[in-house]
Design goal:
By secondary structure, the protein is mainly β. Helices cover 4% and strands 37% of the residues. The protein has helices at 234-239, 258-263; strands at 2-4, 8-10, 26-29, 34-37, 40-41, 48-52, 56-59, 63-65, 80-84, 89-92, 96-98, 104-108, 112-115, 118-120, 130-134, 137-140, 144-146, 157-161, 166-169, 177-180, 186-190, 207-209, 212-215, 228-232, 244-250, 265-267, 279-282, 286-290. The chain has an eleven-stranded mixed sheet. The protein has a ten-stranded parallel sheet with strand order 1-3-6-9-12-15-18-21-24-26. It has a seven-stranded parallel sheet with strand order 5-8-11-14-17-20-23. A hairpin with a 3-residue loop joins strand 27 and strand 28. The longest helix is centred in the C-terminal third of the chain and has 6 residues, at 234-239. The radius of gyration is 20 Å and the shape is globular. The model is unreliable at 5-22 (pLDDT under 50).
């Protein structure tokens, strides 16, 4: 465990492969710490990085939560980077790649995370990788890839929760959010009771991207379902019947894939008795959720 909670540190990790090894390594950047390094990679067997209580972490290149199966035949599980707390910051100027089972990136409770390209489930055996943005900000200066081309690149997820949750995908030469078909990936929203707002109380859109790009995988691979948009909105719908809220906004003209995502929308805790769509794509550039007229009468309890 490296606990860096009280001092400024300019850090260069050696040797060249820059490994947090296979003994559940833990690296903590806490209050008062300003840690600068090249990059972390190969988070074996549950290793993790915490940036908390106002700490700052800057990686000048990238971070890989995965490993080489050729050199390490036993898969590692559940490594993660967690950035949590007001004024806590992590800046990873290169690519962040979640490439081993259950690998995750958390941005929580007022934290700010900035990355380059973000790959969620890209390598052999990288199942159920995820990103969770919970009352925090994640800015991706590149493309987000949800799932991948390999058989095992399945179950990837993006979760957006909390009033001040913000995910911006602005780079990647206009490619934006890229989701591989047939991988069972999902994008989950949990809408707060009064919607998504900034610090001044202004209405915001929780996910903004240049483009949504559904992407086919190779022939012969099992189809586990197209990318789903999954919505929890019980409290919000009860307070705002028949009102609409924008969940995804595409900020230029590259929006051809939005309707495909809206078509796979799945409302987890509300259902319309009369078959009225609860999710609609408006002008192709945004995905809007509309509450039913009386959600208290339309809940299905199982």
């Amino acid at each position: 465990v490296y606990d860096l909670t009280t001092s400024y540190l300019q850090m260069i990790v050696t040797p060249a492969q820059q490994v947090i090894d296979d003994r559940r390594g833990c690296f903590v950047v806490g209050q008062g710490a300003d840690v600068r390094t090249t990059f972390f990679e190969k988070f074996y067997n549950g290793s993790r990085v915490f940036v908390q209580d106002g700490g700052k972490l800057t990686c000048s290149t990238g971070s890989t939560l995965g490993h080489s199966l050729a050199n390490y035949p036993v898969a590692s599980y559940y490594p993660f980077i967690c950035v949590t707390g007001q004024t806590s910051q992590a800046t990873i100027n290169g690519q962040v790649a979640l490439g081993t089972p259950g690998a995750g990136l958390y941005a929580l409770d007022g934290a700010t995370v900035k990355t380059g390209t973000l790959k969620i489930g890209y390598d052999v055996n990288s199942t159920n990788c995820f990103v969770r943005v919970d009352n925090a900000t994640l800015s991706v200066n590149g493309i987000i890839e949800l799932g991948g081309e390999k058989d095992s690149n399945v179950g990837s997820a993006i979760e957006i929760v909390g009033e001040r949750a913000r995910l911006d995908v602005r780079g990647g030469n206009g490619q934006g959010l890229k989701a591989y078909n047939g991988t069972g990936a999902h994008i989950d929203f949990e809408i707060p009771a009064d919607g998504f707002k900034d610090a001044d109380g202004n209405v915001t859109v929780p996910l903004t991207a240049c483009k949504y790009t559904p992407t086919p995988r190779g022939d012969g691979q099992e189809n586990l379902g197209e990318t789903e948009l999954r919505i929890k909105a019980k409290k919000w719908a009860r307070r705002h019947p028949l009102e609409s809220i924008t969940l995804i906004l595409l900020d230029n003209t590259h929006y051809s894939g939005t309707s495909a995502l809206a078509a796979n929308a799945k409302v987890l805790d509300l259902k319309s008795d009369d078959g009225t769509p609860l999710v609609t794509a408006v002008d192709g550039t945004k995905i809007v959720f509309t509450a039913p007229w009386c959600p208290g009468l339309m809940l299905i309890l199982k």
